[in-house]
Specification:
Length: 191
């Protein structure tokens, strides 16, 4: 039986409780690797939901194990709400990849799903962002961690708060609190 009442000595946060997050083992929140997923162009799939489900299924082939994931959240496109609405979610993952290798793996999955990089914030078949890699913080040779805008986005922090409400952003704030105060995507909601 997993003991979920033990405190992590380094951060004072209880490991995730399986009854709250769907995670069947304690999670060291200081080591959490978090990936955000988004889609607002179904591409070859019948829906964005189907595309995102297929993307999650593809993670394993890239050496990324999904430990838990949120429900899917809907929100208007940002910054242009005239674009198709987004479906978003987050996944807690485990991998032997370092942050750069993980980003490369996520990029390969995006490419396999037809991701086109035209103009910034254009509709996309799949958007995978590395939100956090443990407590790493700063510019790691061009990779900025934690994701520089994740904390201000409800469509990231809301799903994250579903599975890891006590996760702390390396620059401050619990996921649950950041979700409540996020200024971008305030219309985001689980579907």
């Amino acid at each position: 039986m997993v003991e979920t009442a033990k405190r992590n000595d380094r951060n004072g946060v209880r490991p995730a409780d399986a009854s709250q997050s769907g995670i069947d083992a304690p999670v060291d929140l200081d080591q959490a690797v978090i990936v955000a997923l988004g889609c607002n162009d179904k591409g070859a799939w019948s829906s964005c939901r189907e595309a995102l489900e297929a993307a999650v299924a593809r993670f394993r082939s890239e050496g990324v194990d999904v430990l838990a994931r949120s429900s899917w959240w809907s929100s208007l496109a940002w910054p242009d709400p005239q674009d198709p609405p987004f479906l978003n979610g987050v996944a807690l993952v485990r991998t032997d990849h370092d942050p750069h290798a993980l980003m490369a793996a996520l990029g390969r999955i995006e490419d396999a799903f037809g991701r086109q990089r035209s103009v910034r914030n254009a509709p996309r078949t799949l958007d995978l962002d590395l939100v956090a890699y443990g407590r790493l913080s700063g510019d790691l040779e061009g990779l900025i961690l934690p994701h520089p805008r994740a904390a201000e986005r409800k469509f990231v922090m809301g799903p994250l708060a579903e599975i890891l409400p006590d996760w702390r952003h390396p620059h401050g704030g619990r996921a649950a609190d950041l979700a409540a105060t996020a200024a971008v995507g305030r219309d985001a909601h689980p579907v």
